[in-house]
Amino acid sequence: MNQEPIYEGKAKKIFTTQNPDELLVYFKDDATAFNGVKKGTIVNKGMLNNKISTFFFDLLGKNGIPHHFIRMLNDREMLVKKLDILMVEVVVRNIAAGSLAKRIGWEEGRKLPCTVVEMYYKNDELGDPLINAYHIKALNLATDEQIRIMETYALKINDILTDYLKNKKLALIDFKLEFGIHKGEVLLGDEISPDTCRFWDTETGEKLDKDRFRRDLGDVEDAYEEVLFRLTGETVK
Ligand code: C5P
């Protein structure tokens, strides 16, 4: 790829294609945490996340969730529909962990009595603060209808993924989604991978996600490999 990316994020580069409605996403091995304060590389992460995201977009599409994914192009690249990204990150939580555990003073691993949906302002400078529907309206980040759609899809995605992953002996602790507008329609965008979800082994409780990098737990690549293997039976080594 000789072309310059139109956008380079922490984990991905985005390129234009000959079709103005489509973009190419390149998955990098770079890993960051704590809003870019911790930086590193996870060997093969780009490949693993491309394949894991491809798997999840396919699964969600088959279950009625409209998304930006068109097809995987090669090990590190996928073709997607171009979105006007809504500057809101939607987090869904089943078990208290990470920032929620800290915020409400619960020990990590305690089951939430009901699913919790949170919205964050996608703004690196501000460190992606937690916001609610009023803030989203006041900041003009999304309409009431778009907020309702994001919330509905987020809960449906949680049901689909939780059910599917149970059979793979993976507990879906929490995850982050991003949405965008394509031809007037709200579509699921970004990626779904161990970078954006917490997966715990249902039997051992072992963390199989980016917390291994964030918390220096070791065996980071192996964890991502394990997730791909459980989903597809595939390995990239
Ligand atoms: O850090 P926190 O507990 O709020 O993260 C909740 C979920 O959202 C985790 O699965 C985490 O991987 C994901 N997340 C993300 N990108 C962010 C913040 C959180 O993918 N910027």
UniProtKB/TrEMBL annotation:
GO terms for molecular function: ATP binding; phosphoribosylaminoimidazolesuccinocarboxamide synthase activity. Its EC number is 6.3.2.6. CDD domains: SAICAR_synt_PurC. It catalyses: 5-amino-1-(5-phospho-D-ribosyl)imidazole-4-carboxylate + L-aspartate + ATP = (2S)-2-[5-amino-1-(5-phospho-beta-D-ribosyl)imidazole-4-carboxamido]succinate + ADP + phosphate + 2 H(+). Keywords: ATP-binding, Ligase, Nucleotide-binding, Purine biosynthesis. Residues 6-228 form the SAICAR synthetase/ADE2 N-terminal domain. InterPro entries: SAICAR_synt/ADE2_N, SAICAR_synt_PurC, SAICAR_synth, SAICAR_synthetase, SAICAR_synthetase_CS. GO terms for biological process: 'de novo' IMP biosynthetic process; cobalamin biosynthetic process. Pathway: Purine metabolism; IMP biosynthesis via de novo pathway; 5-amino-1-(5-phospho-D-ribosyl)imidazole-4-carboxamide from 5-amino-1-(5-phospho-D-ribosyl)imidazole-4-carboxylate: step 1/2. Belongs to the SAICAR synthetase family. NCBIfam families: purC. PANTHER family: MULTIFUNCTIONAL PROTEIN ADE2 (PTHR43599), SI:DKEY-6E2.2 (PTHR43599:SF3). This is Phosphoribosylaminoimidazole-succinocarboxamide synthase. The lineage of its organism: Bacteria, Bacillati, Bacillota, Negativicutes, Veillonellales.
